User: What shape does this take?
Amino acid sequence: MMRSVWSWWALIGLIPLQLAASGIHRTGIGSVAVDFRQPVLSSQQINVVRSEKGLSQFRPDENAWFVSMPLALPLQAASGQVACQLKAEIEYDSPARLELLLRFSADGQSWLDWQPVSSCAQADSQGQSRTGKVLFVPPAAAYVEYLVLFRGSTAPAAAPVLRKLFIDFAASGPVPVLNPELLTPHPLPGALTGCGCPLPAYASRIQWQCPDGREASCAAPQYAPFSHISVETLEGSPAHWAASVRNLWALYTASLGYCDLPYHWLIDPTGVIYEGRGGGDDLVPESRCGTLPGLMRVAMLTAPGDSAWSPAARTALRGLLAWKACEGGIELSGISPWTPADRSLPVLGNGTEQCARLCSQSWVHGLIHEIGQQAIAVLQTCQLATDLDPDAEPSLRVYPNPARDLLTVEFGGALRAPAVLRLLDAGGRSVLVQHAAAGQSQARLACAALPAGLYLLQVRSASEWTVRKIQIE
Assistant: This one.
């Protein structure tokens, strides 16, 4: 669960933070904190008024703005890449009427362009706070200014009031540049092995310098088998993608109060897949909506302003989806019950179905569907390539094969744990699913209604994964 954010800020001004979690000292964190219920200096302000509630428009039907004085960045002698994230406490929040922007300078005199940080903002469950997107600070920057922009409106709704503003900064420290061609495959703790589609080579948490290593950053990680997958877009820095992952980890854990990255995997435009949330497979992720059991979250890193995924990133995502569909028995093109919401949802989406407050661009929807179909083709190819020797698994007997009306599966003894039996057609679609309880020694699958053709039988238990080719006549 998310820890309280606002309780950390008791002072106004520049606050260096040194936070500890899981026994690891988290350094390279700093913040600018502003309370608009108190007098605040500005370099320019038009049509704004301050009260004990905060900063608002003097005339709500006209535009208004407040530009801060130049503020020195709070990180002194920071090493590596620096990123920042803005948070705001707002009464009567309206993203259409209140926009927040930042700009940077090396000397406090010449400034780069304003960058919007609230264009993809997320509000909490009460709508009283807003979290902006992550920005990456130019290497030579030493100063920052913020701009509060109120847009005029004649609507009867109350005008927004800005109470507090926080700009959190995180330095990555030294992180090596990772080359996808040099990554080697290695297992993921808790994931089943033996599936025909292997887990692609990926950069472990150790390789992108996570302070907690491959251990779970959360004190008490929760687990639930994945039934759904969300693919979301997240901005990173083309200057150093691996350092961007380290920046994101620091901001999520120290700034937003998460115990770890909310994403299980991150993929950069060069095709590098990063291990995200620590603790192995089937970890329950966090989100603005709380925990989301059963959802595997993937973040596609893009350069700021990009609205496309690179060919290398798409290839990496295809391989990752095919592996998880194979390993977890997930039908990528299907609709499956979403237990927390007690309703059925598309298995593959962008996460807004499970959490409406997740920020995701509209252009992602069609692309996810396209890559999902390509992953199904990959899944079919690697499953058909898994032509298991019938003598390799003598404990599992399937007959008759070819089958016409009924297919019998003998387990070679009583099952020690429940198993799932699934038939997939030549397109990789699940056409029949049956569960076998612990203690059963065999199962029978009715296949009379299935069209003739080649099928794959998957039998998955807690510790084994077996695939057989089945011919239906």
About this structure: Residues 2 and 258 are 5 Å apart (CA to CA). Confidence is low (pLDDT under 50) at residues 1-27, 386-394. The chain has three helices and 30 strands.
